[in-house]
Structure formats: structure tokens, C-alpha cells
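It is worth pausing here to work through a concrete case rather than discussing structure prediction in the abstract. The textbook approach is simple: state the sequence, then state the predicted structure, then interpret. We follow exactly that order.
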Amino acid sequence: MTNQDQYYMHLAIDEAKKAAQLGEVPIGAVIVHQDQVIASAFNLRESLQTTASHAELIAIDKANETIGSWRLEECTLYVTLEPCPMCAGAILQSRIPRVVFGAYDPKAGCVGSLLNLLQDDRFNHRAIVQGGVLEKECGKLLSDFFQALRAQRTQQK
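Step two, the predicted structure:
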């Protein structure tokens, strides 16, 4: 983990906080190309009511538009939570060579927790993965969000 990884993860955390303000699960992502942020996004699944409204997928779409290509071969994706199978698939398809994530996801993580789709030799693309960058900070965002949600639901009963 480098200082640069921490810097960009802080930007992803800022995105996650935007999601939380909207009542969304606080997950944020940024994509960096040649030391420049070319895309940033946060989870919008509840707002948009679409399955694919994960932070990573929105950021990948924005990065494709910025680069002018579906190939994101010289990019690094920073995301506050370990990517799910859908997002890991999109990372493979977009040819992102490096992924840095914060908190591990033991229930849906497919970049090391349940599976590691990004380093499976059976695929024609693999990515370098760095997990656990600012893990406590990223995890706290999620645990605080779900704790508040449970308290809210308990009050409504």
C-alpha cells in the first residue's frame, strides 16, 4: 500500500459519503489514469432502482466515456468495498489492470473473500489486487450506515 493508494482511497471514501447522504449504501469508487482521476461514482441502486447501479459500474461507464474506449488498460480502480461478482466481471471486461479496495466483503466479495475472479487463470485478463487499504475507515462507513438503518427500522415498529 502506497501513500498514493491511500490518497485515492480517501477520494473513494468521499464518494461513499455522498451515497450515505442519499440513503444509499455508502460505497464509492474512483478510476485513475496516468495519475489523474478520470471517473468517480457512488452507489445509486436505491435511487435508480437498477441492479447495475453499483459505484464501480457507474465509474467504469464514466471512464469509458472519458477515455473514448471500452478498454481501461492503464487505469487503477479504487473502491471502498471489495467488488461483487457483477462488478468483478465488469472489471475483467474493461481490462482494468489494477484494483485497490478498502473493506473485505465476506458475503459477496469476489476479489478474494468468496472467490477471486480477478486473478483466475482461466480468464483472458487478470488484475493486480490490493485489498484492505484504509480497511477500518471503509468498514466503519458501512457498519455505521447499517447500524443507523437498523435503529431506524426498530423505531418504526
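Step three, interpretation. The mean pLDDT is 96. The longest strand covers residues 36-42.
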